[in-house]
Amino acid sequence: MNRQHIALALLTPVALSPARGASVSERDTGTEDRSLPNVIIIYADDLGYGDLECYGAKNVRTPNVNRLASEGIRFTNAHATASTSTPSRYSLLTGEYAWRRPGTDVAPGDAGMIIRPEQYTMADMFRSAGYATAAIGKWHLGLGDKTGEQDWNAPLPAALGDLGFDYHYIMAATADRVPCVFIENGMVADYDPSAPIEVSYRQNFPGEPTGKDNPELLYNLKPSHGHDMSIINGISRIGYMKGGGKALWKDENIADSITVHAINFITEHKDGPFFMYFATNDVHVPRFPHERFRGRNPMGLRGDAIVQFDWSVGQIMDALDRLGLAENTLVILSSDNGPVVDDGYDDKAEELLNGHKPSGPWRGYKYSAFEGGTAIPAIVRWPAVIRKPGESDVLMSQIDWLASLASLVNARIPEGGAPDSWDRLGNLIGTDRSDRPWIVEFSSSHALSVRAGKWKYIEPNDGSPMITWGPEIETGNSHLPQLYEMDKVVEQENVASEYPEVLFGLQSLLRKIKSGSATVEDVL
Ligand code: NG6
Ligand code: CA
To answer: What separation in Å is there between the alpha carbon of 311 and the centre of ligand 1?
Structure first.
């Protein structure tokens, strides 16, 4: 937490007491007394800015997310911190830019726990304020002590309980990476002792089929790029695994499993306050939603996965309604990075777009330094306090959610904790419409970009201008500095040579950001 945070914390419009059941005064919010709100972050995977009906999607119905948006604030200029999962999630949960920390790129399924137990996390913050805390769904930040050395048949020596989560029911990495089992409180859920689990990212286990050698066994989905190692549920994956038996997930049931666990957690903690990080597998590959979500849109499996995501959101909203918790629960819905169409499985997502634009108006996709990489949907609903639903075009980054939520529950961030996160609670709940003076974006090629005012600067990068491994995806890389006017046609014309002072200003700002000394005073 920087000094700015402390100053802003004193001015914060909602000052709440940290004790369980403590109340917020009428003076602070202009409403009646109430207890601390429950907080739910619904974090979709690879869901693009243009993928929801309330963000302009025409080919797919998302009634539940639409309702959430119509009862809260729909943000049109919100950003993930990175254009892939692991770094984005790392930043969200620690309040530290992932580019400051080596080893935060897209993690294999046998990565050791990337956030170390001694680090301060969003879950620690909520726990210190008296909340019950849970992580349910996709994790992708490593488990256990050391990469590749986990014994998946025993309790893991390091898991989310060491990071402030009272409860977890998670996928270790992604659905396209082994191990294909859920982990519940540091152990494989529904463990099957008759099928011990072995995992390797180096070599196959003798006699085990792979997508590469046994394509005839791929009865559910075939790869288009990579994803040709172990076969689970008729789908080949990244990495090798053996065993698992009845603990292996069925892809078509993942949304059901995590949603049921989420509703159970809410129900058990209805007397609150609780914090739930609900990270869906949808709409990441392999897209293999349940039969009952299929065929309701012209976009095939990718569209069906969006429908399934919307269903999960609806289930959570219904549970809150049923339990009488909706009014005082702050729900944030967002995504870890921008969308991608062909991400390595032959699911016809590209061919069936039918005019759909997953990134909405933005250039580029997931992986990219262009806006499509990090411009994401973000919806915040808290009926007790956000009385006037609407839209906000405030410039916002997920990096600030930790400190902003800490301010909400009056948790004190320890020295050195959440170093890059600022208290921008007012932005989040709509009482402050002033832009963050600058935000940083991080691409999968490690290019940093700065957005400030109407400008965007992308630092030079030697990487290829297109993704090298398959689909046609722009990386945003250029060996030249790129400067774009964001109020013009987005990221089309590099105006670096026309505005040398602006370019110089943004380069200096980025240097300051990298050194950790940039503050809210650093405006362009
Ligand atoms: C890529 C995978 C892609 C996806 C991505 C991570 C291939 C060819 N591509 O390496 O399918 O898993 O990593 O996605 O293997 S993320 O949303 O979790 O960051
Ligand atoms: Ca993702």
So the answer is: 24
The maximal CA–CA distance of the chain, rounded, in angstroms, is 69
DSSP bridge partners of 334: 43
Q: Residue 384: what residue type?
A: A
23-47 residue pLDDT tens: 333 334 444 446 999 999 999 999 9
Rg, Å, the chain Cα set: 22
Q: What is the distance in A from the centroid of ligand 1 to the CA of 521?
A: 37
- Quote the crossing angle between the two packed helices 85-94 and 401-409, to the nearest 10°: 30
State in Å: Cα 373 to ligand 2 middle.
Answer: 10
Question: Considering the entire predicted model, what is its pTM?
Answer: 0.94
* Pocket flag, ligand 1, residue 283 (CB < 6 Å): no
> For ligand 1, is residue 427 a contact (CB within 6 Å)?
no
Three-state secondary structure call for residue 354: coil
Given a contact cutoff of 8 angstroms between Cβ atoms, the answer to whether 179 and 152 are in contact is: yes
User: Which secondary-structure segment (H or E) carries 372?
Assistant: none
Give, using CA atoms, the residue closest to atom 10 of ligand 1.
106
Q: How far apart are the first and last CA of the chain?
A: 23
Ligand with the closest atom to the CA of 106: 1
Query: 429: which strand partners?
Result: none
Contact between 12 and 423 under an 8 Å Cβ cutoff? The reply is yes
CA of 46 to the centre of ligand 2 (A): 4
